[in-house]
Write the structure tokens for this entry.
Amino acid sequence: MEEKIYDVIVIGAGPGGASTAYFLAKAGHDVLLLDKSNFPRDKTCGDGLTPRALGVLTEMGLLKELERLGFHANSLEIAAPGGYAVKIKFPKIGRWPDFSLVVPRQLLDDLILKRATMAGAHFESPVLVKNIDTTTNRNWVTITGERAGFNSTFKGRVVVLAVGSRTKLLLEMGLLKQPPRMMLAARTYYEGLEGLGDTIQTRYQGVPLPGYGWVFPTSATTANIGVIYWPGGSGSNGKSNTSSSNSHTLFNGFVQTRPMQKLLSNAGCVSPVKSFPLRTDFATATIWGEKVLLVGDAAGLINPLTGEGTDFALESGKLAAYYLHKLLVAGKGFSYQNLAGYDRLLRRHFQDIFTVSSLFKRLSSNAMLFNQVVKMASFNTALQRQLISSMLGK
């Protein structure tokens, strides 16, 4: 029996991969989606869905279900290193909702995956991909993986890599020359909190700058709490903090700050602290090759200011599907030259965001300057809009 050749094989069933599969399958293409894990599965993350992310999820018909599953947040609080804080309501931007949702990734990713399979994508797991051969045959890609202890092969005309911040495959394929520098983050869950309200908190106290700590409510009394930082950053007092490189140590330092101690006075931690890396190098990253495209974290699409990446993963998945759909309909191949337009498409869509976010990241590295900006924003609505637009990647 002749082995099936799919139109597109997507590796990685997180938001970037599943959204790619959804939009391609919805357009009528034969899509195979592979992942190393069975779903539902946990994913270490902050769990926040920005209005930008909700815009794509609305297109996928998922907003009502996500509102039922998640916590509804109407505003963002930014607390500067010196204690100045400003609370800003989420603005109405285009078709985006004017609120955020906090949805645990175990629920979110499973929901998006189910939407992709309902649209017609074929999902197989657990499949640990070992090798991707894009050169032996000019008409297809051959993927070798391990499934239930046995080797399996899959063939597709083109492959989309949505493998997150894991770089092993990318290095082996020559899409990365060396491992990129990454942000690091750590999070856990607390219950028994009081006074959370409907606000997402970002606190630049007790964490090496330009990093910050977060409080993302998952209900009126529970929250995802974590930290994100650049190894070798500065302390909240502006002094070098290069020795503070352990994410668990930094997390403990953050929750020991006075505002967090007040918030957590009657609360208890209900899960282990888990850490995770984040790629933010989209501005210089290689995002395509011969018969291969990259989406989401694999393309370095993490906001360098906030560490947020689910929105960019969803959007890049949609854009990758749009670009591949055009090539499939036109009957064109997936050579390096034919896929180069995908790079231009994503640069037009995201490059300016990364430029502005990088500027604000440098601003937040300077404790004195950042204190003044947040203090001014408390009575300057134009500055508030600029701050929240930068945080949302707009």
Remarks:
- The CA atoms of residues 17 and 162 lie 5 Å apart.
- The chain has eleven helices and 19 strands.
